[in-house]
Predict the 3D structure of the following.
Amino acid sequence: NRGSFPVSTSILDPIALAGLVAANYQISGPLRCQLVSHAMNDVYRISSGANTHYLRVTPPGWRVRQELEAEVAIIDSLNAKGIHVAAACPRSDGIALTRLDAPEGERLAILFQTAVGEQPEDIDLIQARALGRFAAALHEAADSLELARPRPAIGVVELLHEPLDAIRDRFSDHPDELAYLALIAARVGDAIAQLPRDAPLYGFCHGDLHPGNVCFDSGGVPTLFD
């Protein structure tokens, strides 16, 4: 509304999101929507009887449409190669992304299927080995993907320079500590620069591959999400 105080991020109304999903996706109702995570992305659980989906809403400016379209294309390609990844659900018009006009600007939402199985509280040795084999298969399959759309890089700038710049003002009263961190960043950056840039040692990666983003079915088979 005109005159309202500006916001940097908002919590979208679950009831309104349930109505949006009901109107745009082929999911029989009634639907229940609940916010389950408010972090880098907002994640809502969409329940309909025994069926569950997850709606992930990006913050404004975090990912542009082309990057999210690339993510969906990669997920589809990996599933086609037999790599178990929670799939994105297309809307009734066949499009995976939904545009939301939030108070802080445009936000984009994707509805995902539920990963098969359960998340372990503490991963055991058998699950760790299964996850290791899965990671190897994931990267082997990804090496053959043709990534026509852009995806964010994870390199020296993203891993070192941007985080260091983000904390620089907070360390203004601690120049020695800041200088030490800058020295470590320089050393790590030099080491990264020496790494090979050829497959299979360089290429597509998940970027956040840990047990919290994996479910295991009753047979111990992992399914990746997020």
